[in-house]
Amino acid sequence: MLDVHERNRIEGWRFQSPETPGLHEVIVAGEADCVAISISRLNLPPGARHTLASGVHEIHPVLMHGAARLLSGPFAGTAMKRFDSFYLSSDESTEIEAVEDCVFYIAGAPDERFGKPSFRSFEPGLPIGEIHQIHGDGAGRREVMFTLDPATPASRLICGLTWGGVGAWTSWPPHQHERDLEEAYCYFDMPAPDFGLHLSYLESGGVADVVAHRVQSGTMVLAPRGYHPTVASPNLGNAYFWALAALRPSSRRYDLAIPDPAYARA
């Protein structure tokens, strides 16, 4: 059984990101219970500008809401619509101008300089393949769209978007990848009072010790270790931006998840 200290530690994996204007560091590696993954949120009202600098990290911003324009950097002059994204390695920057109210979720990780700047336009009609995928079936069926796939050069990050069915499970059967990757789930399109649950437990079949994190729009939950399935309430489907950060560049792979053998039959 989990002791009080361990339960409190897992409960600390949940963060509610701010809605106020500006750049907010929500999950910070070394301050939160993680060593590689960092997540920020950038909120910009129409007409506002912000210079986003990568510093010592590689970063991957995804436009979760609104429309924007990139004014400088590798993609100067590029218009961004909802779910468009780009990647910058360390010591790079770009100035962003909000055309409409904007929300960016920004994944960051240590940079080994294996990546180069890239931009991905969101294409919902993309055929099923390497970027647009369907995972699971039945009550566990979900749609996945990579925003930063393993074939795109980067040092640590792999990222994407997931949409689950109404009242359905995602990441089922439960899996963990704690030897190789940390992950953060960043939820959107789940306005209060609607909600989902993000479940965290450490040992195979150990649901007696599960910690349930209530998730809504703006909620971000760490998965530095253990299993982490999610489930939606009956009137909506869970939707989240997920970011994986490899603990070492050789672990920047999407095939390292280990299903919980207690539920592998599901």
Explain what you see.
With about 270 residues, the protein is mainly β. The protein has one domain (about 5-260): Jelly Rolls. Helix content is about 5%, strand content about 45%. The protein has one helix and 23 strands. The protein has one helix at about 5-10, and strands at about 15, 20-25, 40-45, 50-55, 55-65, 70, 80, 85, 95-100, 100-110, 120, 130-135, 140-150, 155-165, 170, 175, 180-185, 195-200, 210-215, 220-225, 230, 240-245, 260. The strands form six sheets. The protein has a seven-stranded antiparallel β-sheet, with no helix packed on it. A four-stranded antiparallel β-sheet has the order 2-3-10-5, with no helix packed on it. Strands 4-9-6-7 form a four-stranded antiparallel β-sheet, with no helix packed on it. A hairpin with an 8-residue loop joins β6 and β7. The longest helix has 8 residues, at about 5-10. It is globular. It starts with a helix and ends in a 7-residue tail after the last strand. The model has no long low-confidence stretch (mean pLDDT about 95).
CATH fold label? Jelly Rolls
Number of helices: 1
The CATH homologous superfamily is named: Jelly Rolls
The counted number of beta strands is 23
Give the C-level CATH assignment.
Mainly Beta
Overall residue-averaged pLDDT value: 97
Largest sheet: 7 strands, antiparallel
Order of helices and strands: HEEEEEEEEEEEEEEEEEEEEEEE
Into which percent range does the helicity of residues fall?
under 10%
Note poorly predicted spans: none
Sum up the overall morphology in one term: globular
Strand order of the largest sheet: 1-20-17-22-14-13-12
Name the assembly state.
single chain
The SS-based structural class is: mainly beta
Strand content: 35-45%
What is Rg? 18 Å
CATH architecture: Sandwich
Distance between the termini: 25 Å
| Count of the separate structural domains | 1
